[in-house]
Amino acid sequence: MHLSSIFLIFACNNSSDSVSQDQVISPITEEQNSLYVTNQWEISNPAEEDFDETMLLEAFDYGMSDGTFTQSVLVVRNEKIAHEEYRGITEQEKQFLITNNTPEDLYKNFDFRDKFSLASSWSVAKSFLSILIGIAIDKGFIDSIDEQASSYIYEWENDDRSLVSIRELLNMRSGLVPICRGENEEPIICQSYTGTGGGLLPFPDVTALCIDRQIADTGVIQPWFSDSITWEEDYFYYINCDTQVLGEILQRAIGGDIETFAEINLFSKIGFDNYWWTDKTSNQLAYCCLDAVPRDFAKFGQLILNYGSWGDEQIVSETYINEIKSIHPNLVVTERNGSYAYGMQFWTFSFPITQEDGNEFPTYPIYSAIGFDGQYIIIDFEKNMVVIRNSLYHPYITTGERVVNVSGDLLTEFNFPNTLPSSLGFNPNFDTNQFLYKIHKSIIR
To answer: Residue 220: how many CA atoms within 13 Å on its side-chain side?
Structure first.
Protein backbone atom coordinates (compact mmCIF):
# COMPACT_ATOMS: atom_id res chain seq x y z
CA MET A 1 0.00 0.00 0.00
CA HIS A 2 1.36 3.43 -0.94
CA LEU A 3 2.04 5.98 1.78
CA SER A 4 -0.59 8.16 0.15
CA SER A 5 -3.16 5.38 0.44
CA ILE A 6 -2.42 5.00 4.13
CA PHE A 7 -2.79 8.74 4.56
CA LEU A 8 -6.13 8.73 2.79
CA ILE A 9 -7.41 6.02 5.12
CA PHE A 10 -6.34 8.21 8.03
CA ALA A 11 -8.06 11.20 6.45
CA CYS A 12 -11.33 9.32 6.07
CA ASN A 13 -11.42 8.49 9.77
CA ASN A 14 -10.44 11.90 11.11
CA SER A 15 -12.07 15.26 10.49
CA SER A 16 -9.95 17.94 8.83
CA ASP A 17 -10.27 20.02 12.03
CA SER A 18 -8.62 17.42 14.29
CA VAL A 19 -5.03 16.58 15.13
CA SER A 20 -3.76 13.02 15.63
CA GLN A 21 -3.33 12.20 19.32
CA ASP A 22 0.22 10.99 18.82
CA GLN A 23 1.27 13.97 16.68
CA VAL A 24 3.82 16.10 18.48
CA ILE A 25 2.70 19.73 18.51
CA SER A 26 5.22 22.42 19.35
CA PRO A 27 4.09 25.24 21.63
CA ILE A 28 2.58 28.17 19.75
CA THR A 29 4.16 31.52 20.51
CA GLU A 30 2.07 34.66 20.76
CA GLU A 31 3.38 35.94 17.44
CA GLN A 32 2.97 32.66 15.57
CA ASN A 33 -0.08 31.70 13.53
CA SER A 34 -1.11 28.21 14.65
CA LEU A 35 -1.89 27.33 11.02
CA TYR A 36 1.78 26.47 10.51
CA VAL A 37 1.98 24.32 13.64
CA THR A 38 -1.31 22.40 13.58
CA ASN A 39 -2.21 22.82 9.88
CA GLN A 40 -5.61 24.09 11.06
CA TRP A 41 -6.99 27.50 10.20
CA GLU A 42 -7.43 30.22 12.76
CA ILE A 43 -10.99 31.57 12.50
CA SER A 44 -11.42 35.33 12.58
CA ASN A 45 -14.24 37.63 11.49
CA PRO A 46 -14.66 40.27 8.75
CA ALA A 47 -14.09 43.29 10.99
CA GLU A 48 -10.85 41.91 12.44
CA GLU A 49 -9.47 41.42 8.92
CA ASP A 50 -10.44 44.92 7.78
CA PHE A 51 -13.63 44.17 5.88
CA ASP A 52 -16.87 46.09 6.07
CA GLU A 53 -18.93 43.19 7.39
CA THR A 54 -22.19 44.27 5.79
CA MET A 55 -20.61 44.63 2.37
CA LEU A 56 -18.71 41.35 2.65
CA LEU A 57 -21.88 39.49 3.58
CA GLU A 58 -23.59 41.09 0.57
CA ALA A 59 -20.78 39.69 -1.60
CA PHE A 60 -21.38 36.26 -0.08
CA ASP A 61 -25.12 36.62 -0.70
CA TYR A 62 -24.29 37.07 -4.38
CA GLY A 63 -21.78 34.21 -4.41
CA MET A 64 -24.18 31.80 -2.71
CA SER A 65 -27.33 32.97 -4.49
CA ASP A 66 -29.96 30.55 -5.78
CA GLY A 67 -29.21 29.41 -9.31
CA THR A 68 -25.42 29.65 -9.04
CA PHE A 69 -25.05 26.03 -7.85
CA THR A 70 -22.41 27.28 -5.40
CA GLN A 71 -21.38 24.86 -2.65
CA SER A 72 -18.75 26.89 -0.83
CA VAL A 73 -17.20 30.33 -0.62
CA LEU A 74 -14.31 31.07 1.73
CA VAL A 75 -12.22 34.21 2.22
CA VAL A 76 -8.83 34.14 3.93
CA ARG A 77 -7.06 37.36 4.83
CA ASN A 78 -3.96 37.87 6.96
CA GLU A 79 -3.62 34.06 7.23
CA LYS A 80 -7.04 33.65 8.90
CA ILE A 81 -10.49 32.69 7.68
CA ALA A 82 -12.43 35.94 7.67
CA HIS A 83 -15.70 34.34 6.56
CA GLU A 84 -16.95 31.11 5.00
CA GLU A 85 -20.32 29.77 3.88
CA TYR A 86 -21.55 26.40 2.61
CA ARG A 87 -24.83 25.10 1.25
CA GLY A 88 -26.46 22.20 -0.57
CA ILE A 89 -28.66 22.31 -3.63
CA THR A 90 -31.69 24.62 -3.46
CA GLU A 91 -35.18 23.56 -4.38
CA GLN A 92 -35.10 25.90 -7.38
CA GLU A 93 -31.84 24.37 -8.61
CA LYS A 94 -33.19 20.86 -8.08
CA GLN A 95 -36.35 21.73 -10.01
CA PHE A 96 -34.22 23.08 -12.86
CA LEU A 97 -32.50 19.70 -13.16
CA ILE A 98 -35.80 17.82 -12.94
CA THR A 99 -37.33 20.03 -15.64
CA ASN A 100 -34.34 19.25 -17.87
CA ASN A 101 -34.78 15.48 -17.41
CA THR A 102 -31.65 14.94 -15.30
CA PRO A 103 -31.63 11.42 -13.77
CA GLU A 104 -32.33 11.52 -10.05
CA ASP A 105 -29.18 9.49 -9.34
CA LEU A 106 -27.11 12.43 -10.56
CA TYR A 107 -28.57 15.03 -8.20
CA LYS A 108 -30.17 13.25 -5.24
CA ASN A 109 -27.03 13.44 -3.05
CA PHE A 110 -26.56 17.22 -3.06
CA ASP A 111 -28.95 18.26 -0.28
CA PHE A 112 -26.54 19.13 2.55
CA ARG A 113 -23.04 20.60 2.51
CA ASP A 114 -20.77 21.99 5.22
CA LYS A 115 -17.06 22.63 5.86
CA PHE A 116 -16.37 18.89 5.93
CA SER A 117 -17.90 18.26 2.48
CA LEU A 118 -15.53 17.49 -0.38
CA ALA A 119 -15.24 19.74 -3.40
CA SER A 120 -13.73 18.91 -6.78
CA SER A 121 -10.66 20.59 -8.18
CA TRP A 122 -11.24 19.76 -11.83
CA SER A 123 -8.37 21.66 -13.52
CA VAL A 124 -7.28 23.38 -10.32
CA ALA A 125 -5.20 20.19 -10.05
CA LYS A 126 -2.99 21.57 -12.84
CA SER A 127 -1.69 24.24 -10.48
CA PHE A 128 -0.87 21.59 -7.87
CA LEU A 129 1.06 19.67 -10.53
CA SER A 130 3.02 22.82 -11.33
CA ILE A 131 4.08 23.21 -7.71
CA LEU A 132 5.13 19.55 -7.65
CA ILE A 133 7.33 20.24 -10.68
CA GLY A 134 8.86 23.13 -8.74
CA ILE A 135 9.53 20.89 -5.75
CA ALA A 136 11.14 18.28 -8.02
CA ILE A 137 13.44 20.97 -9.39
CA ASP A 138 14.34 22.12 -5.88
CA LYS A 139 15.23 18.52 -4.97
CA GLY A 140 17.33 17.95 -8.08
CA PHE A 141 15.09 15.44 -9.84
CA ILE A 142 14.58 17.88 -12.75
CA ASP A 143 17.25 20.32 -13.89
CA SER A 144 15.00 23.29 -14.68
CA ILE A 145 11.79 24.22 -16.45
CA ASP A 146 13.88 25.07 -19.50
CA GLU A 147 15.04 21.47 -19.81
CA GLN A 148 13.75 19.61 -22.85
CA ALA A 149 10.80 17.35 -22.15
CA SER A 150 12.43 14.64 -24.26
CA SER A 151 14.99 14.16 -21.49
CA TYR A 152 12.19 12.19 -19.83
CA ILE A 153 9.69 11.55 -22.64
CA TYR A 154 12.09 9.44 -24.71
CA GLU A 155 9.34 8.86 -27.27
CA TRP A 156 10.01 12.43 -28.46
CA GLU A 157 13.79 12.16 -28.82
CA ASN A 158 14.04 11.69 -32.60
CA ASP A 159 11.56 14.16 -34.09
CA ASP A 160 10.54 17.80 -33.83
CA ARG A 161 8.97 17.17 -30.43
CA SER A 162 12.50 16.86 -29.03
CA LEU A 163 12.65 20.67 -28.88
CA VAL A 164 9.58 21.07 -26.65
CA SER A 165 10.61 22.32 -23.21
CA ILE A 166 9.03 21.73 -19.82
CA ARG A 167 8.39 25.49 -19.67
CA GLU A 168 6.39 25.34 -22.92
CA LEU A 169 4.25 22.54 -21.50
CA LEU A 170 3.72 24.52 -18.28
CA ASN A 171 2.68 27.55 -20.31
CA MET A 172 0.42 25.60 -22.70
CA ARG A 173 2.55 26.74 -25.63
CA SER A 174 3.94 23.35 -26.66
CA GLY A 175 2.55 23.46 -30.20
CA LEU A 176 1.18 19.94 -29.82
CA VAL A 177 -2.30 19.14 -31.10
CA PRO A 178 -5.29 18.85 -28.73
CA ILE A 179 -7.17 15.57 -28.34
CA CYS A 180 -10.96 15.22 -28.19
CA ARG A 181 -13.50 12.41 -28.32
CA GLY A 182 -14.86 11.41 -31.73
CA GLU A 183 -18.39 10.35 -32.63
CA ASN A 184 -17.52 6.72 -31.93
CA GLU A 185 -15.77 7.50 -28.63
CA GLU A 186 -12.34 7.26 -30.30
CA PRO A 187 -9.57 9.82 -29.65
CA ILE A 188 -9.20 12.32 -32.49
CA ILE A 189 -7.56 15.69 -33.05
CA CYS A 190 -10.15 18.24 -31.96
CA GLN A 191 -12.24 19.51 -34.86
CA SER A 192 -13.39 22.76 -33.26
CA TYR A 193 -12.33 25.14 -30.51
CA THR A 194 -12.65 23.72 -27.02
CA GLY A 195 -12.13 25.96 -24.02
CA THR A 196 -12.00 23.11 -21.51
CA GLY A 197 -8.75 21.51 -22.65
CA GLY A 198 -10.17 18.62 -24.67
CA GLY A 199 -12.23 15.64 -23.58
CA LEU A 200 -9.82 13.12 -22.03
CA LEU A 201 -12.07 11.57 -19.37
CA PRO A 202 -13.44 8.74 -21.56
CA PHE A 203 -10.07 7.25 -22.42
CA PRO A 204 -8.55 4.31 -20.50
CA ASP A 205 -4.85 5.29 -20.94
CA VAL A 206 -4.67 9.06 -20.95
CA THR A 207 -0.90 9.28 -20.57
CA ALA A 208 -0.07 7.16 -23.63
CA LEU A 209 -2.63 9.09 -25.65
CA CYS A 210 -1.14 12.45 -24.65
CA ILE A 211 2.43 11.39 -25.37
CA ASP A 212 1.47 10.10 -28.81
CA ARG A 213 0.67 13.54 -30.27
CA GLN A 214 2.43 15.51 -32.96
CA ILE A 215 3.38 19.16 -33.44
CA ALA A 216 0.67 21.08 -35.28
CA ASP A 217 1.52 22.74 -38.61
CA THR A 218 1.91 26.51 -38.34
CA GLY A 219 0.84 29.18 -40.78
CA VAL A 220 -2.43 27.39 -41.56
CA ILE A 221 -5.97 27.43 -40.19
CA GLN A 222 -6.35 24.86 -37.43
CA PRO A 223 -10.07 24.38 -36.74
CA TRP A 224 -9.44 23.63 -33.07
CA PHE A 225 -7.87 27.10 -32.73
CA SER A 226 -9.85 29.36 -35.05
CA ASP A 227 -11.81 29.35 -38.28
CA SER A 228 -10.12 32.56 -39.43
CA ILE A 229 -6.77 33.00 -37.64
CA THR A 230 -3.77 30.92 -38.63
CA TRP A 231 -2.02 28.85 -35.97
CA GLU A 232 1.50 30.12 -35.24
CA GLU A 233 4.50 29.07 -33.18
CA ASP A 234 4.38 29.93 -29.46
CA TYR A 235 0.64 30.56 -29.48
CA PHE A 236 -1.26 29.73 -26.30
CA TYR A 237 -3.72 26.85 -26.41
CA TYR A 238 -5.17 25.32 -23.27
CA ILE A 239 -4.73 21.54 -23.55
CA ASN A 240 -5.27 18.96 -20.80
CA CYS A 241 -2.76 16.68 -22.49
CA ASP A 242 0.14 19.07 -21.90
CA THR A 243 -0.40 18.76 -18.15
CA GLN A 244 -0.80 14.99 -18.37
CA VAL A 245 2.61 14.83 -20.06
CA LEU A 246 4.05 16.98 -17.27
CA GLY A 247 2.74 14.41 -14.82
CA GLU A 248 4.56 11.66 -16.70
CA ILE A 249 7.75 13.76 -16.75
CA LEU A 250 7.51 14.11 -12.98
CA GLN A 251 6.85 10.42 -12.51
CA ARG A 252 9.82 9.37 -14.64
CA ALA A 253 12.08 11.98 -13.02
CA ILE A 254 11.37 10.84 -9.46
CA GLY A 255 11.20 7.15 -10.34
CA GLY A 256 7.91 6.67 -8.52
CA ASP A 257 4.26 7.63 -8.50
CA ILE A 258 3.34 11.29 -8.25
CA GLU A 259 0.67 10.80 -5.60
CA THR A 260 3.22 9.46 -3.09
CA PHE A 261 5.68 12.22 -4.05
CA ALA A 262 2.93 14.78 -3.53
CA GLU A 263 1.94 13.29 -0.18
CA ILE A 264 5.48 13.33 1.20
CA ASN A 265 6.59 16.70 -0.17
CA LEU A 266 3.42 18.82 -0.28
CA PHE A 267 0.13 17.41 0.98
CA SER A 268 1.34 16.22 4.41
CA LYS A 269 3.32 19.44 4.88
CA ILE A 270 0.28 21.73 4.67
CA GLY A 271 -2.37 19.30 5.90
CA PHE A 272 -4.06 18.75 2.55
CA ASP A 273 -6.28 15.65 2.86
CA ASN A 274 -7.41 14.48 -0.55
CA TYR A 275 -8.39 11.83 -3.05
CA TRP A 276 -6.86 11.90 -6.54
CA TRP A 277 -8.67 10.27 -9.46
CA THR A 278 -6.99 7.94 -11.97
CA ASP A 279 -7.81 6.55 -15.38
CA LYS A 280 -8.45 2.83 -15.99
CA THR A 281 -4.72 2.23 -16.49
CA SER A 282 -3.97 3.64 -13.01
CA ASN A 283 -2.46 6.83 -14.41
CA GLN A 284 -2.92 9.68 -11.96
CA LEU A 285 -4.94 12.36 -13.73
CA ALA A 286 -2.28 15.04 -13.49
CA TYR A 287 -4.49 17.57 -15.27
CA CYS A 288 -7.54 16.99 -13.15
CA CYS A 289 -9.60 15.78 -10.27
CA LEU A 290 -8.38 16.20 -6.73
CA ASP A 291 -11.15 15.91 -4.14
CA ALA A 292 -10.63 17.92 -0.95
CA VAL A 293 -12.48 20.22 1.43
CA PRO A 294 -12.46 23.96 0.58
CA ARG A 295 -10.44 24.84 3.68
CA ASP A 296 -7.64 22.62 2.39
CA PHE A 297 -7.77 24.18 -1.06
CA ALA A 298 -7.32 27.49 0.75
CA LYS A 299 -4.11 26.19 2.32
CA PHE A 300 -2.66 25.71 -1.15
CA GLY A 301 -3.56 29.31 -1.99
CA GLN A 302 -1.93 30.48 1.23
CA LEU A 303 1.24 28.56 0.32
CA ILE A 304 1.44 30.49 -2.96
CA LEU A 305 0.69 33.75 -1.14
CA ASN A 306 3.57 32.93 1.24
CA TYR A 307 5.97 32.62 -1.72
CA GLY A 308 6.25 28.88 -1.14
CA SER A 309 6.87 28.85 2.61
CA TRP A 310 4.82 27.15 5.32
CA GLY A 311 5.88 28.49 8.67
CA ASP A 312 9.62 27.96 8.92
CA GLU A 313 9.78 25.49 6.02
CA GLN A 314 10.23 26.41 2.37
CA ILE A 315 8.00 23.88 0.58
CA VAL A 316 8.77 25.18 -2.91
CA SER A 317 11.33 27.82 -3.78
CA GLU A 318 10.46 31.51 -3.89
CA THR A 319 12.16 31.52 -7.29
CA TYR A 320 9.49 29.16 -8.62
CA ILE A 321 6.66 31.28 -7.18
CA ASN A 322 8.20 34.32 -8.87
CA GLU A 323 8.04 32.41 -12.17
CA ILE A 324 4.29 32.12 -11.55
CA LYS A 325 3.99 35.81 -10.73
CA SER A 326 5.89 36.71 -13.89
CA ILE A 327 3.15 35.33 -16.18
CA HIS A 328 1.84 38.87 -16.22
CA PRO A 329 2.96 40.72 -18.26
CA ASN A 330 5.15 38.08 -19.92
CA LEU A 331 2.42 35.66 -20.99
CA VAL A 332 -0.67 37.73 -21.74
CA VAL A 333 -2.80 35.83 -24.25
CA THR A 334 -2.78 38.36 -27.07
CA GLU A 335 -3.53 35.70 -29.72
CA ARG A 336 -7.24 36.19 -29.09
CA ASN A 337 -7.00 39.83 -28.01
CA GLY A 338 -7.05 38.65 -24.42
CA SER A 339 -6.21 40.79 -21.40
CA TYR A 340 -5.51 37.84 -19.13
CA ALA A 341 -2.30 35.83 -18.77
CA TYR A 342 -1.72 32.09 -18.55
CA GLY A 343 1.48 30.34 -17.61
CA MET A 344 3.04 27.90 -15.16
CA GLN A 345 -0.45 26.29 -14.99
CA PHE A 346 -1.93 29.44 -13.41
CA TRP A 347 -4.20 32.23 -14.70
CA THR A 348 -4.60 35.92 -14.08
CA PHE A 349 -7.94 37.68 -14.26
CA SER A 350 -8.54 39.93 -17.25
CA PHE A 351 -7.93 43.57 -16.40
CA PRO A 352 -8.91 46.26 -16.37
CA ILE A 353 -12.63 45.63 -16.74
CA THR A 354 -15.20 48.40 -16.39
CA GLN A 355 -17.73 47.32 -13.78
CA GLU A 356 -21.44 48.23 -13.70
CA ASP A 357 -20.74 51.19 -11.40
CA GLY A 358 -18.18 52.60 -13.86
CA ASN A 359 -15.11 51.66 -11.83
CA GLU A 360 -12.32 49.56 -13.29
CA PHE A 361 -11.50 46.27 -11.61
CA PRO A 362 -9.08 44.66 -11.29
CA THR A 363 -6.31 47.18 -11.85
CA TYR A 364 -3.41 44.81 -11.13
CA PRO A 365 -2.73 41.08 -11.70
CA ILE A 366 -4.77 38.75 -9.52
CA TYR A 367 -3.68 35.12 -9.86
CA SER A 368 -5.82 32.02 -9.76
CA ALA A 369 -5.98 28.28 -10.13
CA ILE A 370 -9.17 27.64 -12.09
CA GLY A 371 -11.18 24.50 -12.74
CA PHE A 372 -14.17 23.50 -14.84
CA ASP A 373 -17.60 24.44 -13.50
CA GLY A 374 -16.28 27.36 -11.46
CA GLN A 375 -13.63 25.98 -9.12
CA TYR A 376 -11.31 28.78 -7.97
CA ILE A 377 -8.31 29.32 -5.73
CA ILE A 378 -7.78 33.07 -6.09
CA ILE A 379 -4.51 34.55 -4.82
CA ASP A 380 -4.39 38.32 -4.31
CA PHE A 381 -0.85 39.30 -3.31
CA GLU A 382 -1.65 43.00 -2.91
CA LYS A 383 -4.56 42.44 -0.53
CA ASN A 384 -2.93 39.47 1.27
CA MET A 385 -6.03 37.44 0.51
CA VAL A 386 -7.12 34.03 -0.76
CA VAL A 387 -10.64 33.42 -2.06
CA ILE A 388 -12.08 29.94 -2.62
CA ARG A 389 -15.21 29.17 -4.62
CA ASN A 390 -16.52 25.70 -5.45
CA SER A 391 -19.61 24.49 -7.24
CA LEU A 392 -21.82 21.73 -5.86
CA TYR A 393 -20.03 18.38 -5.90
CA HIS A 394 -20.76 14.75 -5.26
CA PRO A 395 -18.40 12.12 -6.71
CA TYR A 396 -20.57 9.77 -8.74
CA ILE A 397 -19.00 6.38 -8.01
CA THR A 398 -20.67 3.06 -8.74
CA THR A 399 -17.62 0.78 -8.44
CA GLY A 400 -16.28 1.95 -5.08
CA GLU A 401 -13.15 3.70 -6.39
CA ARG A 402 -12.20 6.96 -8.04
CA VAL A 403 -11.33 5.48 -11.43
CA VAL A 404 -12.91 7.51 -14.21
CA ASN A 405 -15.33 5.62 -16.43
CA VAL A 406 -18.00 7.43 -18.45
CA SER A 407 -19.16 4.52 -20.59
CA GLY A 408 -21.40 1.57 -19.84
CA ASP A 409 -24.35 1.39 -17.47
CA LEU A 410 -25.00 4.59 -15.49
CA LEU A 411 -25.98 2.76 -12.31
CA THR A 412 -23.25 0.09 -12.18
CA GLU A 413 -20.23 1.24 -14.22
CA PHE A 414 -20.05 5.04 -14.29
CA ASN A 415 -17.49 6.90 -12.16
CA PHE A 416 -16.89 10.62 -12.65
CA PRO A 417 -16.38 13.88 -10.70
CA ASN A 418 -19.98 15.06 -10.84
CA THR A 419 -20.24 18.81 -10.27
CA LEU A 420 -23.27 20.97 -10.91
CA PRO A 421 -24.31 22.29 -13.32
CA SER A 422 -21.73 22.12 -16.13
CA SER A 423 -20.82 18.44 -15.90
CA LEU A 424 -24.51 17.74 -16.63
CA GLY A 425 -24.40 20.00 -19.69
CA PHE A 426 -25.87 23.21 -18.23
CA ASN A 427 -24.23 26.63 -18.13
CA PRO A 428 -23.38 28.08 -14.71
CA ASN A 429 -24.95 31.36 -13.63
CA PHE A 430 -21.99 32.73 -11.71
CA ASP A 431 -19.81 35.75 -12.56
CA THR A 432 -16.51 35.36 -10.73
CA ASN A 433 -15.23 38.80 -11.67
CA GLN A 434 -18.36 40.45 -10.28
CA PHE A 435 -18.16 38.37 -7.12
CA LEU A 436 -14.50 39.22 -6.57
CA TYR A 437 -15.21 42.91 -7.17
CA LYS A 438 -17.88 42.87 -4.46
CA ILE A 439 -15.37 41.34 -2.06
CA HIS A 440 -12.81 44.01 -2.94
CA LYS A 441 -15.30 46.81 -2.37
CA SER A 442 -15.83 45.49 1.17
CA ILE A 443 -12.12 45.87 2.06
CA ILE A 444 -11.66 48.85 4.37
CA ARG A 445 -7.85 48.97 4.14
So the answer is: 7
